[in-house]
UniProtKB/TrEMBL annotation:
<dbReference type="InterPro" id="IPR011989">
    <property type="entry name" value="ARM-like"/>
</dbReference>
<dbReference type="GO" id="GO:0051604">
    <property type="term" value="P:protein maturation"/>
</dbReference>
<dbReference type="InterPro" id="IPR029240">
    <property type="entry name" value="MMS19_N"/>
</dbReference>
<dbReference type="InterPro" id="IPR024687">
    <property type="entry name" value="MMS19_C"/>
</dbReference>
<dbReference type="InterPro" id="IPR039920">
    <property type="entry name" value="MMS19"/>
</dbReference>
<keyword id="KW-0234">DNA repair</keyword>
<feature type="domain" description="MMS19 N-terminal">
    <location>
        <begin position="40"/>
        <end position="293"/>
    </location>
</feature>
<comment type="similarity">
    <text>Belongs to the MET18/MMS19 family.</text>
</comment>
<dbReference type="GO" id="GO:0005634">
    <property type="term" value="C:nucleus"/>
</dbReference>
<dbReference type="GO" id="GO:0006281">
    <property type="term" value="P:DNA repair"/>
</dbReference>
<dbReference type="InterPro" id="IPR016024">
    <property type="entry name" value="ARM-type_fold"/>
</dbReference>
<dbReference type="GO" id="GO:0097361">
    <property type="term" value="C:cytosolic [4Fe-4S] assembly targeting complex"/>
</dbReference>
<keyword id="KW-0677">Repeat</keyword>
<dbReference type="GO" id="GO:0016226">
    <property type="term" value="P:iron-sulfur cluster assembly"/>
</dbReference>
<comment type="function">
    <text>Key component of the cytosolic iron-sulfur protein assembly (CIA) complex, a multiprotein complex that mediates the incorporation of iron-sulfur cluster into apoproteins specifically involved in DNA metabolism and genomic integrity. In the CIA complex, MMS19 acts as an adapter between early-acting CIA components and a subset of cellular target iron-sulfur proteins.</text>
</comment>
<dbReference type="Pfam" id="PF14500">
    <property type="entry name" value="MMS19_N"/>
</dbReference>
<keyword id="KW-0227">DNA damage</keyword>
Amino acid sequence: MSMEATERLVRTWIATGRDEEVSQIISDIESGRSALLNLVKALGEYLTSEEDVLRQKGVDLLSQVLEKCSPAKINKQATRVLVTFYTGKLEDPETVIPSLKGLVPLTALPTFSGAETVDTIKALFSHVKMKGLNQSSRYLVFKILDSLVARHRDEFITGYTSFIDGEKDPRNLLLAFSMDRVICIEFDISEHIEEMFNIIFCYFPITFRPPADDPYGITPEELRAALRSCLNSSPLFGQLAIPLFLDKLLAGSPATKKDIVETIGVCLPVYGPVVARNFAKKLWNFIKLEVFQPVNPEIEAEALKTTQVLIRTIYESKGTSDETSETLSGLAKEICDECLELMKEPEKSQAIPASKVMASLIGTTANVTKLSINQAITHLLGLYRDPDELIHRPQILTLLCIIVSAIDAERVTLEQFGLQGLLLSYKDDVLGAFISGTKNPGSCEAALEGLKKLTKMQDALSEEELVYVVHNINEVLQAEDGEIESASDDALGVLIGIAENHSKIVDEGTLPFLFSSLPESPASRDANKSRTKIWTTLRWLAQLCVPAPLFETLVVRLTTKLELIFAPNNIPDDENDYEPRLAYAHGILRTLYSVLELKVNANHADVPKYIDRLVPRIYGLFISQALRGPQYVLAEFYTRLLDISGHIVTLVVRTASLERQEKFISDLELLYFEGNLGLFSSLIKDLPSEVVFKPFESSSSLALKNTISLFSSAVLALRPKVLLKSFEPNEFLDKIQTWGLDNAANEHQRKAAIYIVATLLNKNRDLLSPFITKQLEAVWKEIISVPDLPTEQRQHAIQSWLWITKALVLLNDPAVFTFVGHLFEIFSDPSVGWDAAKVVGHIASGGEDILTKTNHSVIKILYAQKYFRTVLPKIMANLSGVIQSPAQKASLVALTSLISSLPKTVYMSEMSTLMPHLIRGLDLPSCEIRSNIIDTLTVVASSDGIHGPTQEHATTLVSIVLKNALPQEITSVPLRIASLKYLATLPKAVRYDVLHPNKNLVIRELERALDDPKRAVRKEAVNARTAWFLYKG
């Protein structure tokens, strides 16, 4: 390429500044068609021009080319020439910035030698005035320095310290701190320690708070960590740093004290034992203030950690000193003496901080640990045995708990010190003190806390001792004394800790008496005390029986208890006894469900086996009841037992393998559709020979049909591709849907049917296209769209339509919008228009707690967003103009239903358009709809900016919501509560000048809400009125 071409490109760039010319020049140099020398020659007149703009442009073009040019194209001679050129240009104020841009790539070249390093450093320190540059230009200087730090250390530090002084931008400080640390570690800074100290420690402590719209995302924590890495980068800082730390600590605010104390703990090991000993007493005197007079628990915890670091730093360096724990002197001995003096009065407020300090010494060094344990435990046990201190035993046990807890926390360290036997020498006395403490109401709580710590210590107690502990805990659980009885939850915590590793002891020691507390028949209505004891026992069992061996016992005992409750010879004659019996059974089933839920969430491996051990017994129990037909199975409360039992079935079946699910659903198929008891025959006994179990028959009794919910619960948990073998999939879904629409006798049964359809459709969509087609051709045309049919029948079909569409929307299936489009067609129908509108919105809520990932449903990402973006325009099109027609009102219902069904992240970007329509929705007669709208408005107000739609419509919103907050003809408790919560949110979300004219009116009107007949409403009214009273400019 000719020189003329390069000159032409240069002239064009000088005139236009386009990137294309830069790219072409670089391409020519890389390909060999031109050379860097050609570019310099072409730029000659511009580099030396007397016009500032041309001179600046010339240097800038050269720097841009260097930045993107490969290092191989720049030899050593070229590097030397370019460095000389750029350092000279630093003297020219107009070319400082483009020169810095050029030096950045040059300093990173392998051909950049020591001579160039010296010249560059000298030029930077002599000619660049940092305080006159903006942030981006100063950043270039830091990048150059970062490259130079490892290349040339002579003459660097003096110039560096004066050069970097006064930097404030957090982006530059992060880079500066990283360089400071490298300098302190890699350089000999002994002659410059004061200069380095001044430029580093002047930033301590960091008080930076990023602006709300900070685009760089630099956090105070990042700056603190970077600065702290400099503060502890050299032991030479010790003598200068400690006095500064103490001054800052004395004058520090709560916000900075934690940082200061934490920094002292990080720096002391680096500063070393000599510095630590020199400042030991001063450090302790300052740090102990944060323990004995703490500003907050966080600072107290950091102060205790720093005390531990201080002692470890002082005493670890003594190594194999002749000092023993008995002859130990210095700060550790003084701290122990001071704390023991305070612990002589355990009832005083300073005793607990003193015991925490003693506990912090444990794990520092072997001798200090031995000294603190011996002195603390000996002292506290002596106090506990002292008859004069009898009244203070609860406080003494609290202090002992703190020491025992510290020993447990430092168990590994104690083993390294060879002190694992130290606690064993006190074990019997400590255990005895805690056990005796459980007998006294005042000390029971502290004693139980101590036992919890002691029993969790690995290998601290033998099995015999654990049995002894369990025996005494049982006495606490059985106590009738009101004060001791209140400690039952703490006692249970001890048992739970023991059960984790020694479940057999709890199984044999505690469970028998708990199960014996559960009667075979429920307590009568007026036996409040007995009923409370039953619920308490069930709650204890739910918390205690999570480990596999205990849960197995729980399942056997509670299912047996259920069978006894519902035994034919145990059925009450009086209808008034039905409810207590059903409530007792529900409590037992709820206990099983609670434990199972914990185990499933924790992925316990023993859960799947209960598809054989628990689930069949549940089916057997309820099917037996349905076939025998006692009167109470028709009670309204009885379906709640079926619901909770169904939850148990779902939890267990979902954990089973695909093969085991296939076998189980095959057994259920035989049972429910052929009446073949099969797997369940041994569980369903003593039935008349003529009794047949076929709940899907139209002639079946209500009790039999209700058991279909148990079948539905198992189907919900099936994995994809697990299907019933006796039916073609489309035929089966059609059969179940038809049964739900034509034969289901109540809502419980209809839900069971539609859940079966929805879950199988979601998991096996590719097999069920004919079923989808039938919905459009039969269910829609023959039921939903027929105005002459009974409204209730059409409403049931619409609910079926809802769940089928939910199953599809989770898959992002295109058929969804065909289904939704049909619903829009009946918005003007006076009978079911609003039902259809609500369904359009509810579809967006997805599978709720039915079609979930845990139940193996198929859920595609962003399904809700896709649905919202498609349906919203159609709704909005119907809402133009004045809302008059039934279809428009239904569209308003659809909009409110849609918004309340979605997370705020989906619709927030549209709120400026949606807000006027939501305000219109507050005039609808439905209390439920208005309540949902106001809940949505509350979420929006909490997330709204100062220019959001809440600000714009605040006055109108206050007026309308205030009316809904007060008792009136068409109202409800949820509506009034939602309105009052929204009114309480507004003062925090809206500028004072916007709502100031409404303040007096709101306060006056809310006074009426204070007299609301419902307590929950009155509570929210107080909160709202308080918020408006405090609302000021």
